[in-house]
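Possible regression after last week's pipeline update?

I re-ran a chain I had predicted before the update to compare outputs. Posting the input and the new output here so someone can diff against the archived version. Not blocking, just want to make sure nothing changed silently.
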Amino acid sequence: MRQRRLILYICNLLSDRIIKERELRPPSMGSRSGRLIPVLRACREVGTAVWGLSLGRNRHRSTYKWYPATVARVDGAPMVFAAFWDCPILTHVVTIVSLGLITWRLRKRAASVVFWNAMPHYVLALFMARLTGMRCVLDLEDGIREDIRGFTNGVYRFLQRMWDRCADAVMVANASLLNQIKTRPAYLYYGVARQLSVHRSWDGKLQALFSGHLSIDTGVDNLLEALRKLKEIAPYASSGIRIVAVGDGNLAGRMRSAAAGELKDILEFRGRVTDNEYQELLRTSHIGLCLKMPNYSMGQTTFPSKVIEFASWGLLVVSYKVSDVPVLFPENGAILLEETAPHKLASALKQIVDAPSKAHECAETGRDAIATRLNPQSIARELADLWLGHEPVRNVKDLRANVVD
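New output (post-update):
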């Protein structure tokens, strides 16, 4: 009997094509942004057969249209998108059943299933995987947040405990999540980083990219106040730097108003963008702003994978010392601020405008460090060992493989 080697990675990844075909609402920023596609590509490059299995949906619009399960390639990685019926309530049942049936149909080929977070839509797929003897691995990127209470918090805690009991191994996005999970082995996984060759001039006006969910937690108010301070302490800054903000969230309106009003000379707001538009911004930007606030729960229970993306594209990372970000970057490889006071961020932006060549050197150092520490081939081989249950998965205090037995 042929040994099963295929690995299914169940997630909610979308593509521009699926968004268009199913008339879905575009994500806050490029739908393929994040850490999933890079690691799928890296795994396939080292000979590991990985297929993505996606929900193929987001919020319904009540059009009552039916979309069957679809197979496509996203950046070269095979992806199966579950069936989607755009109607209230029953749409979720269809997604749950579709994911479960696809997992069942692939039972003779798949050896392992990786679940991106513990989501209710994955429950039947988890049951099918356990029933057919597949190895189950939880990729926990978002932990339990203490600032979220009530029914939603209770459901998420229940789902996380269920996956914790059923999983054979777990990947966690930052060290603090180890305290929320009992499953071992637990692999501390930040993502992979390709050293991309992007040529940009640092002599003219600099562009800074701020992207993602727009809320207090992610630093929207902090950024707006910092830009006001910057205009006070360095009026010439508006001719030396421009911040481009993309995304959506409860503070999108505030960002839009500021970009159209008092900060129009230094801030541009584009809202939701496609993959191609987001990648173009990565190519043309010089600075990547990651402003998750350390004093909010989100800053401690998640890892901002965008800092890896920024560094891979050669952007200078400007971030607060949140989550495990300080562990990854050398002191001269990023600007990591100790305080969240807006005037500190304004001062950092002023220094970049005043010394762009020094900022360029810092960005290059960060890019090289991340590419070495999160080498795609090394990470891909170690993840394959974890997913397939091979021994040993290295248990070392190393940024490229930090495993707790």
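Follow-up from reviewer: compared with the archived run. Residues 395-405 have pLDDT under 50 and may be disordered. Marking as no regression found.
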